[in-house]
Structure formats: structure tokens, C-alpha cells
Amino acid sequence: MNKKKLFFLRPEFALVWIVILVYAIFSVMRPEAFLSWENLMEILRQSSSTAVLVLGVTWVISIGEIDNAFPDIAACASMLTALFIRGGMSFGVAALAAIALGVAFGALTSLLVIKFKFPSLIATIAVSGIAKAIACWIGKGIPIPVTTAGTLVYNIVWYKFLGIPVLFLLALALYAICFVVQEKTKFGQYVYAIGENPQAVRETGVKSGRIMAMVFIVAALFAAIGGVLMMGIMQSGQPKMGSSFFLDGFTVVFLGAVVFKMGKANVAGTLIGAILLGILTYGLTVVGASYFMSQIIKGTLLILGVSVVTISKNKQRGKVGVLTYE
Amino acid sequence: MEQAKKKRISDEVFTIIIFSVLFLAVFFTFAMLNKNFASVINILNILKHVSVVAIAALGLTFVIAVDHADISFYMSSCFSAMLMAWLIAKGWHPVVCILAGIVAGCCWGLVSGIAVGKFKLPDKISTIAIGSIAFGAAYLFSDGAFIYTNFPSSGITSLNNARIVGIPLPVIIMLALYFLAYMVLERSKYGRQFYAIGANRKAAFFSGINVNKVIVISFVICGGMAAMAAMITTAAQGNGNVKSGLTLLMPCFSAVFIGNAVFRKPSVIGTFLGAVFTSMVQNGFTLMSVPFYISDLVVALLLIVAILSSKFELSSVGKKSAAAKGKAVAAQ
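Output (C-alpha cells, whole complex):
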């Protein structure tokens, strides 16, 4: 019965319709700022860096853990790139070095969580504290402006290929790779298996620790890449940009968990979530909404996403026996 | 069995000894490096500085005790701070303002508690969302600007400056709250319910504990305590600052989890020691005029080291008890 229904009418695709609806509403309110190819592409360009930043967090949520460190790892990577470029390195080398440091943070998180059995919340709070401190240390607490970053970063951030921003294409490519990994490899299967029942996965003989470690490292890797891209966009290393990505990141991932795979954070959904948040951020700026309004809207969306995820999970598992307290 | 219990106890004593040695070592290092560190005035200063983190962390202890996490308290404390400042600017009596702020903090806690306790939403994510809404709401009062109006004349600053038998008022408030919390959480039947839920929710449910209610209450306490921390910050700074509470997240979690690591369960005394320890380090570095980011770095490292040291076992027998995160203690 369900299969006969056209795929885009299924509840899993509701968020895609919501994205279109939100865009339509804003277009009616401010047609001059929305109804053109350039503006649409500008929105996509602005969503791209957030999308890359939270790509890895998707899987952390999928395995049922939490990562508080990603915004500060991004901030640290952006500061480090700025520092290296000012020190005379080329953008490519500086970016690679910063990304390597990001991976090191991820390795530290996974060491604490998997080897020493820290709760992931505490481990990532500690790691985010370290990352934030280093980010502030590098610039003595103030941003480092970069004016001599070279043409490579300029092209990545601003160049358009056939009218589509290169930054968005880059994000799309990263998402495509991760989508294939998630859907077509053992690794992707185990990620969801661990999210469902870690005990069972461990007892089947799968090295679940390694998979979880990989997930945390990948989250840090993409956070660092996102941070480097943000450095390119802002033309400076920002030590305190982390706080603004905290709510956005989780909102994106949990909105994404509502699409395609009902109730499970997934890569394709995260991209849709990032685009929705990009449209909202842009739209609210154009309309002139206050910080309060945008914060309320994002927070409410996050709660909605979480509620749908929780409800659909409970439905899948069903209620067990007499345990009515849950 | 008897022997296993003995060994576990010796493990716990061992952790407490390690912590005390670490604590004293840090204290004397700072005292050697800086003459002013060990003076009475500075120790009172440290305690005053402790009071903000300690009170907020005390509320968090209740939430951690029921095996949940609250990431909204530091953002809802911003809302409470702004509400207090706004009411003071309107010319209300400071006591009314403070009460209103605390009630507001409890309300945000209630919202989080209902979301987590009643509707069973995942605790970390939903409290992030609710906290962010609270932080957004804090911008309603002045659009993010500082509120100074009426502050010197309203008398709220005397909350910070007043002394009773030479001890600053915030310190006395802190000690009173800790005494109260100790009596409730660790010396009453009511407090055992928190630990019972944290140890095994199903068992707690079947022993007739109203699990949902106690979880909601723990979040309300956390919100209220965060508001009290906001009250002390507001009085000390002499203005309403939207971002006053944002620095609380890491020190509070550090305090609770250092305490958790030392005593193998989230406890009132453990949280206090953890808060004193982190604040002592921060104060020590400040006296040496080291910038804030270094002391943040050290607090983060301390958190890791403290939890690591509790994983260090004298014998393999104790390993299971550590993995159960103090569940054995609560089950006794």
C-alpha cells in the first residue's frame, strides 16, 4: 500500500515540502530579495559552510552520542588557518595543517569516550574547552584578519561555476561521498546498528569501538573543514564564532532526521535541514526579525525535530509489557 | 563478597587521597608563586568567586543524580539576570526583582523538566533547544544592551558587598544552600529517590517512586539555582548583562563531574570541592595575570585528569564499580 504512494507524498518528504513552502512564503513577503536565481544561489552559498560544519555531527547523533565540541573545533581551525597564512604559508598548506589539528581533537574525544569510557557529553565539553582556549590563545582573544589568502580560497568561496557557487558544489560533493559511505558500506550500516543497540553490535563481534572512534574523528574533520571555509568567507579567523553554530548545528541535524529515514539522523536529511536553516536565516535577516525571533524559531524547530524523532522511535519499538511509566 | 566490598572502599579512599594531594599541591604551588594567594582576603575572594559557579553546579548535581543532563541552565540564567535587571530599572524593590528572577529560572527548569521527564524527549538536545529559546528571550528586555539604570540606588549591590561577621553575603548564601541541599539530597528519604532513579529507573518505578515527578523537580531545582547564580553575578557586576551566564557551562560541569569522580557519585560535597578546586585554579592564574583562555584550558584539562584519576583502580575488582558510575553506592 505504502509503496504505491508516490514517493514525494510520503511523510518522510514532508520537510522538503516545508523548505519549498518557507521559500514561497518569504518570496511573497519580499519578492525582490528572494525571487531570482542569484538570490537563491546566494542562500545556497551561505548554507554550504554550515552544512559542511555539521556533516559529521549527523553520524554522532546516529550512534546515539552527542558532540558539543564541533563549533569550537571549527573556530580553532579558522584561527589556525589565519595564523599560518599570516605566517607566510599558502592557503592549501595552512588549511591542511588546521584540518589535521581538527582531526587531533576528534582523536582526543574518541580516546576519552571509547578508551576511558567518558560520557560523550563530558568528553566533548572538555575538548571544546580546550579548542576554544587554543583558538583564543592564538589571537590573544581577538580575530586575525587575513587579506593575503591568495586566489585559491577566493575562488572556492566566491567563484561561480555555471551560475552555481563553487562552495555549494564542494559541499554537495562532500555530502555525496558521505551519502555513499552511509548507504553502501558496512561502516554506514554499523553506525545505525550501534544507534539501535550498541550491546548487540559489540556482542556480534564487530569492533564497535573503532567505528565510534571513526565517527567522532569524522565529526571533528568536517568541523575543521567548515572552520577553514568560514575563515575564507569572513576573511578572518574568528575565535568566538563557535557559539553561533551551537544551536544551528543541532537544529540542522535534527530537522534532517525527520526526512528520508524517519527518526534517524542521516546525511541527505542534514543537507535539506541546512538549506532550510539557510533560507530561514536569510529570510529573517531580510524581514528584519530580532535576534529573539530567530532564536525562538530555531529552538522551536529543534524541539519539533526532536519530538518527531522520539515519537517515531517509540512507534518502531512499540510499548513493552507493563512498563507504562515510559 | 565481603572482600570485594572492602577493596572497593579502599579504591574510593585512594581516589579521595589522590584528590586531596592534588588539591593541596595546587594550593601550595599558587601560594609559593604568589604571596597574596594564601591571604585571608584572597581566600574570601576565591570563595566569593566560587559562590556563583558552586550554586549553579549545585542545581546541576540534582539533574546529574537522576542520570540526566541539563544544558539549558546557563542560558536560562541569562534570562533571569536580564529580568532582574529590567525590573530594577523599572524601580521595583530588589527583593521582588530577585524573587521574580528565581521564579523565572524555575519556570524554564519546569519547561525542560516536562519535556524530559514527562514527554521523554532526549535530555541533552531538548535542553539545548529550550535553553536557546531562553537565551533569545533574554534579548527581549534591552535588545542585548547592558542595563545600568537604577542599579547603584536600588541597593542590589549590597547583596554583593554586605558582610556578616566578616564573611561576604554570597558566601553565606552559598553555604546555606549547600547545607540545605546536603540535608535534602543525602540525609533524607526524599533525597534517596534522586539516587534511586539515577541508579535504576525501572527499579525506582517499581518501588513506588513517582519517577516523572522527581525528574521534573530536579530540573526545576537546577533552573532555580542557576537563577540564584545569576542574581549574585548581577549584584557583583552592578549591571544586567545578557552574556553573564554563558561562561558557566564548563566550570559547572567540571565541578559536578570532578565531585562525581572523587566520590563515585554526584554528591553535594563533591560538587562543592569540585567548584572550589576549579575556582581556585582560575583565581590563582588571574592573580598571576595570566589571560582568561589559559585558565579555561587548565579547567578543561583538570576535568579530564580528574575523571581519568577515578578510572585508575588499585585492583581489577573495583573496575566494575567504577563502570557502574556509583550505582552500587546508591543501591545500598
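Strands of chain B lie at 163-164, 167-168.
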